[in-house]
Specification:
about 850 residues, Nuclear Transport Factor 2, Chain: A, twelve-stranded antiparallel sheet, oxidoreductase, copper, single chain, 13-stranded antiparallel sheet, transmembrane helix, EC 1.4.3.-, about 35% strand
């Protein structure tokens, strides 16, 4: 098992005398396996290697053959490998026949023809969404169908996605042969046609059956019309409203912004949320920008901003106000700003002629042809493939792999979800789901300061976001791709998009390993991945679930894409003499600074360790004197004499009695374990799963910040509550637009209910702080965070010993390797 280079480097650091001694010892140590190698490579080659190893030299290679499978020997181009053919009382018989190329690898499609909608948790299909819209149209719940709404005075569908079955009904069906629950849709309707406009939510179904019901989930007026998310209809109205003001600003914009005019060379960015603290009004801040990259270009925003007062749906009452130019203002009208500009009473900006025409070339993410290629960059990189075809299967949206099984689900607002996750026949979790992504920006810029986004408000898998899987970038070419559907509010139609891929990955590392003087063993880390790349505005997120052979689940959230920048003002009066940075970030481009912000990902983790009767045990990791440690388990009064000093580490166990939220504090570290009090392993220990947040940022805003109720899930890394059907998510998509009176935030769930032997939900939040640097231009290279669900006394031993693995015992024929395969050519994907 020893690595050749390690052997060389190790021996080169020691003297010649040490090398000779070690060479002689190694010769005796490796002698049994050495004989095998001699026969494999030929008598002459074996004799030369034996002489070389026995006499030793400066680059001691005597460990070259230790636990070797022969792959390091020179065989004239044919690389032998050991294949376990069968096991006899004397040990396995090995074959050293070279691999032969058998042509193209098997290419069986692991996905059968079972329709999505037959699965209990499958996302809604286009067909089902169309059925729902027709039901609502016929029932006169909406005023438009199959075409774009013409005004905000119409009633139309904002969002639509699966309404999951009640957990009790799903468990009864999945485990107790109960009746299959029907499929339902949850629909958000913007009711502009009502006398008092509002937003209503409905449950529609069962789908695919005559006589589907439309059941209100909210009361009229409960969700204020001003709490709605932005949509294409409102943006068009805003554009039309500001058209005249943009004409008044034409001279200022031409002189300041490289002869650009609206709407030809400039666009208006409206999504600088939130629209207002209260629902009594709606205030939309806007910023002018160059659309150099795309319509939603948030790098090239310019120092011209304003606000539109736009409550309700009577657009005749809407009006713009509070104009700023280079942070100078506010001017109550656009004419006031223009007069100050003409009278030279304010600072002015003049971008260089031709500047805007260089932006796309500088920021478009393509190879820079002015730079030489790196050495061998024109050669294809390493890649993986399946030499005997897929080892997983998919029926509808149910996935099975290596004793794992789960159902893929999700919706356009909250994002991807997995249901009924089982390992080796045991239920591990009922639901593992993305719930929201929160971002909070800080910058010294009018129209952009104190921006807060809650991405579920706009749709993580639909809405203003779109997604497309980039083959061989997001996922390997052999991955199975799922389409999911989303409802487009502007066209009032449903669309399919490639959104989820599933594949087995080769970690090319050890899941576990050990090398001792008498044996060597290990298992290669292969795992199944469910990956969901999404685009929410300027940011690209990859949401990922990884399933491991030992029972671990690693949930990851990764970010890439374009940053949202603010304009770099060389003469900013708030900046110091150092013009390269300020209190809110660094200058990262010609006229851009990178505002500091964070990305906080909120997950719903409904663990079911064996069943739904669980508790949360907190293991406190402590340090103190010996008596402190021992007194956690007995009333000892004297330190036993065998302790060599009076300080130690120890753990203290606490079963949480009531709902609570935890913030990670590395001065007082904790481990969170969901346990089943009624199920024990072989050693009498409660079976459990640990929830382990990995590298993560923390919320730094104080609780008194106006947004912290709506964003309360970002305050905690792990929160435990008693599960309730009426508490399906950790945030509401409307609360960011009604911060003075939020109604669906996580803190509301913490009401001191007992959580011992109950059906629990753990709400897990992880993320990272982002201080953009020049390396984020043009593209942010991947940053990530995540958490681990890890067996914790769940099994009696490491749960991988029902799999072939690597094992070789010194001086014995007791050898095992992974299943052999014949070399083959990676096939073209045909499914």
């Amino acid at each position: 098992m020893a690595d050749n280079e390690n052997c060389k480097n190790s021996s080169s650091r020691k003297g010649h005398e040490q090398n000779e001694q070690r060479a002689k010892k190694s010769f005796n140590y490796c002698s049994h396996l050495f004989v095998l190698v001699v026969f494999a490579v030929g008598l002459v080659g074996g004799t030369l290697i034996g002489i070389y190893a026995y006499h030793g030299n400066k680059n001691d290679n005597s460990c070259l053959n230790q636990f070797s499978n022969g792959a390091g020997a020179d065989t004239g181009g044919s690389v032998p490998h050991y294949t376990q053919i069968k096991t006899t009382p004397g040990g396995p018989i090995l074959s050293t026949a070279p691999r032969t190329n058998t042509g193209q690898c098997p290419n069986k499609n692991p996905k059968d023809n079972t329709p999505y909608e037959s699965s209990l948790f499958a996302p809604l299909t286009v067909k089902e969404m169309t059925e729902v819209s027709e039901i609502l149209w016929l029932g006169k719940f909406i005023t438009t169908v199959n075409h774009a709404p013409r005004s905000l005075e119409e009633s139309f569908i904002l969002y639509m996605y699966l309404f999951p079955p009640r957990k009790e009904d799903a468990i009864e069906y999945l485990y107790n042969n109960g009746s299959k629950p029907g499929r339902y849709a949850k629909v958000h309707i913007q009711r502009g046609a009502e006398h008092v406009p509002d937003i209503m939510e409905y449950k529609v179904g069962p789908l695919g059956h005559p006589g589907a019901n439309v059941t209100p989930l909210t009361k009229p007026g409960e969700i204020h019309f001003n709490s709605r998310p932005y949509d294409g209809v409102e943006v068009k109205v805003l554009d039309d409203l500001l058209h005249n003001d943009m004409k008044v600003l034409e001279t200022l914009m031409r002189e300041s912004f490289d002869n650009a005019t609206f709407p030809n060379e400039l666009y208006i960015f409206y999504y600088n949320g939130p629209p207002r603290m209260t629902t009594e009004g709606r205030e939309t801040r806007f910023v002018i920008g160059f659309p150099a990259l795309e319509e939603l270009d948030v790098i090239n925003l310019l120092p011209l901003s304003g606000t539109v007062h736009n409550p309700g749906n009577n657009v005749s009452d809407w009006h713009p106000h509070s104009y700023y130019y280079l942070n100078q203002g506010p001017y109550s009208t656009v004419q006031g700003l223009v007069d100050a500009y003409k009278n030279n009473t304010i600072r002015k900006l003049r971008l260089p002629a031709g500047y805007r025409n260089t932006l796309r070339r500088k920021l478009f993410p393509e190879k820079d042809n002015s730079l030489p290629l790196r050495e061998y960059a024109d050669h294809p990189g390493a890649r993986s493939y399946m030499p005997k075809g897929p080892r997983f299967s998919i029926s509808g949206t149910n996935v099975k792999w290596m004793d794992w099984s789960f159902h893929i689900s999700g919706g356009q607002l909250k994002g991807p979800a997995l249901f009924d996750i089982r390992f080796k026949g045991n239920r591990i979790a009922y639901e593992l789901a993305v719930n929201d992504i929160a971002l909070e920006y800080a910058m010294d810029a009018s129209g952009q300061n104190s921006i807060i986004y809650m991405d579920a408000t706009y749709g993580i898998m639909g809405g203003v976001s779109r997604t497309k899987i980039l083959n061989d970038v997001d996922c390997p070419s052999y991955a199975v791709v799922f389409n999911t559907s989303y409802w487009d509010s502007f066209s009032q139609k449903a669309f399919d998009m490639e959104s989820i891929c599933v594949f087995e990955a080769d970690g090319q590392e050890a899941l576990w390993r050990h090398v001792s003087p008498s044996f060597a063993g290990g298992m290669r880390n292969r795992h199944l991945i469910v990956r969901v790349p999404v685009v929410v505005g300027n940011y690209d997120y990859t949401l990922e679930f990884q399933f491991y052979l030992d029972g671990k689940i690693y949930t990851m959230a990764k970010a890439s894409g374009y940053i949202q920048a603010s304009f770099w003002d060389e003469h900013n009066p708030h900046a110091s003499g150092d013009k390269t940075r300020d209190a809110f970030g660094y200058r990262v481009f010609e006229y851009q600074t990178g505002p500091i912000h964070d990305h906080m990902f909120g997950f719903k983790v409904d663990m079911d360790v064996i069943d739904s009767n669980n508790s949360l045990e907190v293991v406190h990791w402590k340090a103190g004197n010996i008596l402190d440690a021992l007194r956690t388990q007995s009333n000892i009064t004297q330190v036993p004499p065998y302790f060599i000093y009076n300080q130690t580490r120890y753990v203290e166990y606490e079963t949480m009695q009531e709902e609570t939220g935890f913030r990670l504090n590395y001065d007082h570290q904790k481990m969170f374990v969901v346990v089943n009090e009624n199920k024990k392993n072989k050693w009498g220990v409660k079976r459990g799963y640990q929830i382990a947040p990995l590298a993560t940022g923390a919320q730094s805003l104080p609780d008194v910040h106006p947004a912290m109720k709506a964003l309360s899930f970002t305050k905690y890394h792990v929160t435990v509550t008693k599960r309730k059907e009426e508490e399906p998510y950790l945030s509401s998509i409307y609360d960011i637009n009604r911060m003075n009176n939020p109604k669906g935030y996580l803190d509301l769930m913490l009401n001191n209910e007992s959580i011992v032997n109950e059906d629990l939900v753990n709400w897990v939040t992880v993320g990272f702080l982002h201080v953009p640097s020049s390396e984020d231009i043009p593209m942010t290279a991947r940053v990530e965070s995540g958490f681990l669900l890890k067996p914790f006394n769940f099994f009696d031993k490491t749960a991988t010993f029902d799999m072939p693995q690597y094992y070789e015992e010194q001086g014995s024929t007791n050898v095992e390797h992974e299943p052999a395969f014949d070399a083959c050519v990676e096939p073209n994907k045909e499914y």
